[in-house]
Amino acid sequence: MKLWIPDRVYFEPLAIEYPIGEKIFNFCKKNNIEIFKTTSHNQVRGIPGSTEKAKFANAKKTLVVGRKKSLNLDVCKPSAHYQFSLMTNCPGNCEYCYLFSTQGRNPYVRIYVNTNEIFKTIEKYIKKRLPEITVFEAASTGDPLGVEHITGTLKDTIEFFGTLDKGRLRVVTKFANVDPILDASHNGHTRFRFSINSNYVIDNFEHNTDNLEDRLKAAKKLGRANYPLGFIIAPIIRHENWKEQYSSLIKKLHSHIDFAEKDSISFELIQHRFTSNAKNIILERFPNTKLEMDETIRKKKYGKYGRMKYVYQKEEALEIKDFISGLIKEYFPNAIIEYFT
Ligand code: SF4
């Protein structure tokens, strides 16, 4: 497990006046990281690189610290009612990253310092749905655990949700740095999910993330710290030997998650999909990618705002769903499979 250290950090106006901004500034000083000012993240200039590939690699080592200005929350189906952002983008570098469709042209990592305003917004959205419980997803626009060693904001957020009667938090990660949040007062209100996959997918497509072994060890630590636990298997890819490899994955998971908590774990299953826009970006940044993105053998699916994506054909998707659900039921008979999409 290697913690991400950016090469350069840009501060938007006023960001440094917030305690989190100051904390990040001190982190930069301590680690001899170059610091710049910018009027806005859109105005960030000077990220080196003469090709799209090089620019992308350098953007992934660039951090922009600012305030979250738009505080309207989007709905987040099927995993939660709403999503909010403590950060955008991610230190990881997965070839299939779901962010390419929405954040593709601005791949630098952004961290938001105005968490109090974000928390007030969350309270407002909870109020609207009373007396129902409202569930929020914190990892739809990035992986907050990947920068927790710099910000500490995920722990604050977990503790904030720990105090809420009617609010629940969901987080998903491909990182393993859970030690800073083990002692958080979560009150059982945060479900922490780990994104896991076959060896083929992790080895070929998931760069700069923590390896499966470390993710499973981290999951075990959180389970022992009484966090509700879950696993997202995504993207599920029909590569050669996919059945054997996903079987080994579930067996390996079972051998790690050997404590009482395993009865209440959740699973979310997501088949591989891509948009035309994401495909173009992926081919520019990973010209030798082994990702299969052949529109002619895929089925079109229309999502939010009429956006079209390519998924597997109906029978292939059904085969994935039945096969992996069967494995889960065999090894984790009491687990909940929340959805397949
Ligand atoms: Fe994208 Fe998640 Fe990979 Fe980060 S860890 S690059 S958010 S898929």
Question: Keywords, please?
Answer:
alpha/beta, 341 residues, binds iron/sulfur cluster, 8-stranded mixed sheet, pyruvate-formate lyase- activating enzyme
Describe the structure.
The longest helix is centred in the C-terminal third of the chain and has 18 residues, at 314-331. The protein has 341 residues and is an alpha/beta fold. Helices cover 34% and strands 21% of the residues. It has one domain: Alpha-Beta Horseshoe (pyruvate-formate lyase- activating enzyme). Helix 9 (242-256) packs parallel to helix 11.
Please sum up the structure shown.
The chain is α/β, with parallel strands linked by helices and 341 residues long. Helices cover 34% and strands 21% of the residues.
What class would the helix/strand composition place it in? alpha/beta
- For the record, the CATH class is Alpha Beta
Strand order of the largest sheet: 4-5-9-10-11-13-14-17
Strand content: 15-25%
The number of domains: 1
**Would you report the number of β strands?**
17
Mean pLDDT: 93
Bound molecules: iron/sulfur cluster
Rg, Å, rounded: 20 Å
Q: What is the helix content?
A: 25-40%
Q: Please provide the ordered H/E string of secondary-structure elements.
A: EHEHEEEEEHEHEHHEEHEHEHEHEEHE
Poorly predicted runs: none
Question: What does the main sheet amount to?
Answer: 8 strands, mixed
* End-to-end distance: 30 Å
Say what the CATH topology is.
Answer: pyruvate-formate lyase- activating enzyme
The CATH architecture comes to: Alpha-Beta Horseshoe
- Which word captures the global form? globular
Please count the helical segments: 11
